[in-house]
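Give me the fold.
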Amino acid sequence: MSTDTLEVERILQQEATQLARQREVGRVLAQSLLDPFAILQVPRTCTPSDIKAAYRNKSRLIHPDKTAHEHARDAFERLKKAESELMDDERRRSILAMINEARRELTAEWQAEVMSGERGEEDARMEGDAFELAVLEKYKKIMVEIEWRRRQKLKQEMAAEGAATKKEEERAEERRRKRDAEKAWEDSRDDRVSSWRSFQTGSGVSKKGKKKAPVGKKAKLAMAAAAAAKSQTQAQ
């Protein structure tokens, strides 16, 4: 085999490998984040060894350093997340429990549709690829609903915490205003005492503590008349 032929085969092999890498990146990105089994392409009865082997093989294939795909890093992150979830026994059991719940709900729905005539018995077989795909779709809907409820609950809790914080801030502000008012009252005590003393000594109060009676116009006329009469009597 000539050198040129070997070079051509090498190039073709490289292109085939890159094509396989590109396709695998696209496949991973096309899978739902809710189904780590599909991302790693392992059965739901997989063992930890199966999970590690699948992750190792696929990570070599789609690693960002080995493929030119622009979304290779996103695919690689999905692969890591799927491996992490399935290697966590509790998380894996939780996913399987939700898938089984989806299967039970879907079975009940399809059976009810058969009884009502909405679905033919031949279309309601609870097995095969079509049923498993329907189970997966049901599972996704359940998980989306759970996530929506979780976010709504979190939103309500945050709103309640915000209202409580605002109320506490208002109470703190009211206490601050009260303290400031009390301090201002105490600080002005000397000024109030001085003003009162000044009022007592120079604003219409006699030394004996009695107010002088105001002299009206009629009283002045009466006093003038009495003084005139007295002068006239003395002159006689």
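The longest helix spans residues 128-187.
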